[in-house]
Amino acid sequence: MLNNQIKIRISNGPATAMGPGKAELLALIHECGSISAAAKQMKMSYRRAWQLVDEVNKCFDQPLVASSVGGSHGGGAKLTEFGVKVLENYHALIAKSQEASVQELAFIRAHLKSSV
Predict the structure, then answer these.
(1) Which residues contact 57 (CB under 8 A, 6 or more apart)?
(2) 50-80: per-residue pLDDT in tens?
(3) pTM reported for the whole predicted model
(4) Among 91, 90, 41, 80, which Cα is nearest to 57's?
(5) What is the 3-state secondary structure (H, E, C) of 10-75?
(6) Residues forming a β-bridge with 59
(7) At what angle do helices 102-110 and 81-100 cross, to 10 degrees?
(8) Chain-centre distance for alpha carbon 30
């Protein structure tokens, strides 16, 4: 089955500042309030999720995710106001790209082999 979604990755030098996986992780952190819970939902190790969050935070001039260390009240993580704005803009970019490329994608998909 073909995926009908355009996938966009935004590079910052050798790093990927934003892409589909990072956007999903950020959305889950926003929803769950926790990097650990978001990682579990994505079937990803906490270490890998933390590495991705660290990379995203280093790519932008402001942090996208703010975390607090656990303790008696427990830790957590949340998207900063800037992080929410970046995620919204990334999703808008995907939607606009999808809309603008309907004909081109249809042509390309019509000529793809059924299985590779």
Answers:
(1) 63, 64, 65
(2) 999 999 999 999 999 998 876 555 678 999 9
(3) 0.86
(4) 80
(5) EEECCEEEECHHHHHHHHHHHHHCCHHHHHHHCCCCHHHHHHHHHHHHHHCCCCCEEEECCCCCCC
(6) none
(7) 60
(8) 11
Place of tokens 């970019």: 93
d(CA 76, CA 35): 7
> Tell me, what amino acid is at 115?
S
Per-residue pLDDT tens for 9-27? Answer: 999 999 999 999 999 999 9
Torsion sign, CA atoms 90, 96, 101, 105: positive
Q: Distance between CA atoms of 13 and 98, rounded to whole angstroms? A: 25
